[in-house]
Design brief:
Number of helices: 7
CATH class: Alpha Beta
Distance between the termini: 35 Å
Helix content: 40-55%
Number of domains: 1
CATH superfamily: Glutaredoxin
Length: about 210
């Protein structure tokens, strides 16, 4: 388990993985997997030739709450210098992970990806049970002032379901077994801290 849940979040203190180094070799990936699809959620864009950082998150994982502030700070500090993309992974035993991702996608269609991802990741109690949590996610949508009829309709929209399946397949093929999982310019990286992640980004930018 992650040991950093109670830490302040200062740069360099948040553990993103239990062990390993920033240069740990990635696991072998199956052929045909794609790290960054053209329709993935771009959290911040950058110009041609900039680093491409793709983050796979399982929204039901406790690590989501640890990783999100790191992602927020990195995308703010590297705005215009690195592209940051959010994708989904669905790990074993997480029965509401895909519904959480569907809710996030539905909120994104109304311009509230950021608001919804913070509510999903920062709210802990919905992770306690195995029953459907769609009513909780609908409550988050109401809090954000979304059009609830449209939100409900989008939850079952084929395009959203297709994206979930595409991310699920690619995460498996790329060897993603826990999250957050980071890929920098298509290569798996395993930073153990926020400072390690920044170091790898800086190295690519300066190269």
């Amino acid at each position: 388990m992650v040991l950093a849940l109670g830490l302040s979040g200062a740069v360099g203190t948040v553990l993103l993985h239990d062990s390993g180094s920033v240069t740990s070799p990635p696991p072998p990936a199956l052929t045909g997997a794609s790290v960054d699809h053209g329709d993935s959620n771009v959290l911040v864009s950058a110009g041609p030739g900039s680093p491409d950082l793709v983050v796979f998150l399982d929204l039901e994982s406790q690590r989501c709450r640890v990783a999100l502030p790191v992602i927020d700070r990195v995308r703010a500090d590297y705005r215009g210098r690195a592209k940051v993309v959010l994708r989904y992974a669905f790990t074993n035993g997480h029965t509401n992970s895909m519904d959480a991702a569907r809710a996030l996608e539905a909120a994104s269609r109304q311009g509230e990806l950021e608001g919804m991802v913070h509510r999903i990741c920062e709210t802990e109690d919905w992770r306690e049970g195995r029953d459907s949590q769609l009513s909780r996610f609908r409550g988050f949508a109401e809090d954000l002032g979304l059009d609830i009829a449209r939100f409900q309709s989008d939850l079952s929209e084929p395009g959203i379901r297709d994206r979930m399946e595409e991310d699920r397949r690619d995460a498996i093929a790329l060897g993603v077994q826990d999250t957050p999982a980071f890929f920098l310019n298509g290569r798996r990286i395993q930073p153990v801290s926020e400072s390690g992640l920044r170091q790898l980004l800086d190295e690519v930018i300066e190269s």
